[in-house]
Specification:
Blueprint (H helix, E strand, L loop, with lengths): L3 H10 L13 H4 L6 H4 L27 E14 L5 E7 L7 E5 L3 E8 L7 E4 L20 E6 L6 E7 L5 H6 L3 E7 L1 H4 L9 E9 L19 E4 L2 E2 L2 E6 L1 E8 L6 E5 L5 E6 L2 E9 L2 E3 L4 E7 L8 E6 L9 E11 L22 E11 L9 E3 L11 E3 L4 E8 L6 E5 L5 E5 L14 E4 L4 E7 L5 E6 L3 H5 L3 E6 L1
Parallel strand pairs: 1-4, 3-8, 9-13, 12-20, 21-24, 23-30
Antiparallel strand pairs: 1-2, 4-6, 5-7, 7-8, 9-10, 10-11, 13-18, 14-17, 14-19, 15-16, 15-18, 19-20, 21-22, 24-28, 25-27, 25-29, 26-28, 29-30
The protein binds CU-O-CU linkage (C2O) and copper (II) ion (CU).
The site of CU-O-CU linkage has 10 residues, from strand 5 and strand 29.
């Protein structure tokens, strides 16, 4: 078995970066800061709503010939302004923090050639996508420093809000934390035919938490869930965003390593959720709370026409680690009126009902756990084992369906569960039918301590070996990951 320490030493010794510390800091990222603390005193996080939320940049293909959208991306370390007036070192796709948006269409292939200019290996995983194993950015299938790798995405699946992020084993948590994540919006004709808010009224928003040091630099410590108390929306701390008094569609993505978000409007106002991880729901539903564990997505429409121009309305996060007060995610400032021809149809797509899904050939049980005795070098487990890249934990027959009943055996620590390759359906949560937010296609589900979810997946797109893991990336880096092989 390959141990975690051997993987670490192996990975880092090829980069000359030296040994990782117990705290998980990569020395190579610590060198130099844009601004010294003693020049003007320590950097503070600004009061909320003092910076504007930027829109995420959209990548442009360098070629669209032959039915393929071809992209080139340089993975590089740069300095970007996160806190006002401070340059923070971040890891980026093409210099963007947070990562850019790639807009793709079902049935049209995308290729992305990544050039790795970092001093450590990377792997780019397209989360939620049906891709062949060699294009999955799997943890040990890395792109060495100074080399390039082209990933091919067939996009043979329906509309979905996917995302891409680093997956190089035991570095993924720190790499994603330092910026290596981007949004991948896959659209199709079903979605485009709907009169939903679009163009400037459709906005992807990447949410996360972060911890800054006194120089305004990102601090990464493994499992630091209490320390990451600054919330970022599209890479800025508690920003404001100007909106018109009409409907907007927000594609919300939680890129945090550990933080479970529970979003609500400060006035308790209603939001309409229209989609989740695997694209549109069958039917929209109205809610005042959007829970998002790390890697989950919610596609949400908010109608600002109910607010007079001049209203400022805060999107809050319910109290969580590090705070007893609701957190300020961002503020919507209603600054003008605008015509609104958009509409939310009663039916957004059709999905088989859960009783009409193919009969499972196999019913598996999976147990997630990690040390919760307070030890500093806590380990994560799937069915009592830490991840071994050479061990196949589950063997699935191509073309069949299965149910996976997944339990969080911990007493205090929440987890979630993500499978590569498939979009699954949630048959049950704690013995009850799935709530509306989980009734569509999903690739990641929350698991609070003691919870059990029963999932249904059909393995009919690709053969090969893929991982499943807790998407609290600090946990998967601790070993809470396993392999399944489809053959
Ligand atoms: Cu979002 Cu294995 O990944
Ligand atoms: Cu976990």
């Amino acid at each position: 078995m390959v141990t975690r320490r051997r993987l670490l030493v192996g990975a880092l010794s090829t980069t000359g970066a030296g040994l990782i510390t117990g705290a998980g800091l990569l020395p190579v990222l610590q060198s130099g800061t844009a601004r010294a603390a003693d020049e003007t005193g320590p950097v503070a996080v600004p009061p909320p709503f003092t910076v504007r939320m930027p829109q995420l940049p959209v990548l442009t293909p360098y070629s669209t010939h032959g039915g393929v959208d071809a992209y080139r991306v340089t993975v590089k370390e740069v300095s970007r302004e996160i806190l006002p007036g401070v340059r923070t070192k971040v890891l980026t796709y093409d210099g963007h923090f947070p990562g850019p948006v790639l807009r793709a269409r079902s049935g049209r292939q995308v290729t992305v050639r990544h050039r790795n200019t970092l001093h450590m290996p990377i792997a780019v995983h397209l989360h939620g996508a049906e891709v062949s194993p060699e294009n999955d950015g799997s943890p040990m299938d890395t792109v060495a420093p100074g080399t390039t790798r082209t990933y091919t995405y067939p996009n043979q699946q329906p509309n979905a809000t996917l995302w891409f992020h680093d997956h190089a084993h035991h570095m993924e948590a720190e790499h994603v934390y330092r910026g290596l994540s981007g949004t991948y919006v896959l659209t199709d004709d079903t979605e485009r035919a709907l009169p939903l808010p679009s163009g400037q009224y459709e906005m992807p928003i990447a949410l996360r938490d972060a911890r800054f040091d006194e120089n305004g630099q990102l601090v990464y410590r493994m499992d630091d869930f209490r320390g990451r108390t600054t919330l970022l929306a599209n890479g800025r701390p508690s920003p404001y965003v100007e909106v018109a008094a009409r409907k907007y569609r927000f594609r919300l993505l939680n890129t945090s390593n550990l933080r479970f978000l529970k979003l609500r409007l400060a006035d308790g106002g209603q939001m309409v959720q229209i989609g989740s991880d695997g694209g549109l729901l069958e039917r929209p539903f109205t809610t005042d709370t959007i829970p998002l564990s790390p890697a989950e997505r919610a596609d949400v429409v908010i109608d600002f026409s109910r607010y007079p121009v001049g209203t400022k309305i805060v999107l809050q996060n319910m109290p969580g680690p590090g705070t007893t007060e609701p957190g300020n995610v961002l503020r919507f400032d209603v600054v003008r009126t605008a015509p609104d021809p958009s509409r939310i149809p009663d039916v957004l797509r059709t999905l088989p009902t859960v009783d009409a899904l193919p009969r499972p050939a196999v019913e598996r049980k999976i147990v997630l756990s990690m040390d919760e005795d307070g030890r500093t070098d806590a380990r994560g487990f799937m069915d009592g084992l830490q991840w071994d890249p050479d061990r196949i934990d589950q063997t699935v027959t191509f073309g069949t369906s299965e149910t996976w009943t997944v339990t969080n055996a911990n007493q205090r620590i929440p987890h979630n569960f993500h499978m590569h390759l498939v979009q699954f359906r949630v048959l049950e949560r704690n013995g009850l039918p799935a709530a509306p937010a989980e009734a569509g296609l999903k690739d990641t589900v929350q698991l609070f301590p003691g919870e059990t979810v029963k999932l249904h997946a059909t393995f009919n797109s690709h053969r090969g070996t893929y991982v499943y893991h807790c998407h609290l990336l600090d946990h998967s880096a601790m070993g809470m990951m396993a392999n399944f092989r489809v053959r």
